[in-house]
Write a structure and sequence with these properties.
OB fold (Dihydrolipoamide Acetyltransferase, E2P); 2 domains; about 20% helix; alpha+beta
């Protein structure tokens, strides 16, 4: 085998490995507070009134995340919804005074209790943010209509 052939084979192997690595990662969300902390064992549903809406810079991702401060009968909790672009795509709007019901995972992020939302009901509309396994609908691993109307 000539050195040119060996080099060509080595380059082909490297390119193949890189291709396999990219394929394995496609659709997989990078670790962060919205993916690695979602815990199916802590899923619950709470209702209350939106106190305020906050936009926060997302960790290692472009854009902002939408967080709600929700006042329930158990006190206030920060609810992590998802990226602003996704909520905009769904036509989802939240404002102070909105009465909502949130199904999600109550977890500790950076030392404080938060809820990572899977579904948010407002009036007769339910916004689906995560599937039953806790995978974000915007991550590319799941396709389908993320919002539905309950009537």
């Amino acid at each position: 085998m000539t050195s040119l052939t060996r080099n060509a084979i080595a380059i082909a192997i490297v390119l193949l490995m890189m291709s396999l690595n990219v394929s394995a990662q496609r659709g997989r969300e990078r670790p962060g507070p919205h993916t690695s902390n979602y815990d199916l064992k802590t899923v619950e549903t709470i209702g209350g009134e939106v106190v305020r809406v906050e936009l926060q810079e997302a960790d290692r991702r472009p854009g902002q995340g939408v967080h709600l401060i929700l006042k329930s009968d158990k006190g206030e909790i920060e609810v992590h919804l998802g990226p602003q672009w996704h909520l905009d795509d769904q036509g989802a709007e939240f404002k102070s005074g909105d009465r909502i019901q949130v199904k999600g995972s109550r977890v500790t992020v950076q030392g404080k209790q938060v809820m990572i939302a899977a579904e948010v009901k407002k009036g007769d509309t339910t916004l689906i943010l995560r599937d039953e396994a806790g995978v974000p609908v915007w991550s590319g691993r799941r396709r389908g209509p993320p919002a539905r109307t309950d009537k």
